[in-house]
């Protein structure tokens, strides 16, 4: 699957000022992350299981 076929959404933590924003797209085997200000630069692809581990760890550190 190419990244152009993915459905991208902006992070809920992105501010309204346009700085430091990322977009995420969830694929069948990976989560894709890109800079919302320059989408032509490509994306970082993370295996789905690694993304799940990361978000679990991030949620635990916020508690």
What characteristics describe this protein?
63 residues, alpha+beta, four-stranded antiparallel β-sheet, 1 helix, 4 strands, 27% strand, flat
What does this structure look like?
There is one protein chain. The chain has 63 residues and is of the alpha+beta class. It has one domain (3-62). It is 24% helix and 27% strand. Strands 1-2-3-4 form a 4-stranded antiparallel beta sheet. A hairpin with an 8-residue loop joins strand 3 (30-35) and strand 4 (44-47). The radius of gyration is 12 Å and the shape is flat. The chain starts with 8 loop residues before the first strand and ends with a helix. The relative contact order is 0.18. The mean pLDDT is 84.
Question: Would you spell out the secondary-structure blueprint of this structure?
Answer:
Blueprint: E1 9-10, E2 22-26, E3 30-35, E4 44-47, H1 48-62
Antiparallel strand pairs: 1-2, 2-3, 3-4
Which segments are poorly predicted (pLDDT under 50) over 5 or more consecutive residues? none
Whole-angstrom Rg? 12 Å
Helix content range? 10-25%
Tally of structural domains: 1
- Give the overall silhouette: flat
Strands ordered across the widest β-sheet: 1-2-3-4
Mean pLDDT: 84
Query: How much strand content do the residues show?
Result: 25-35%
- Biggest sheet features: 4 strands, antiparallel
Number of helices: 1
What is the total tally of β strands? 4
Structural class: alpha+beta
């Amino acid at each position: 699957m190419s990244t152009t076929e993915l459905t991208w959404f902006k992070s809920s933590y992105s501010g309204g000022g346009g700085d430091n924003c990322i977009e995420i797209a969830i694929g069948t085997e990976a989560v894709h992350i890109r800079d919302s200000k320059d989408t032509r630069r490509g994306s970082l692809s993370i295996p789905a299981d690694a993304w799940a581990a990361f978000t679990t760890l991030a949620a635990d550190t916020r508690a």
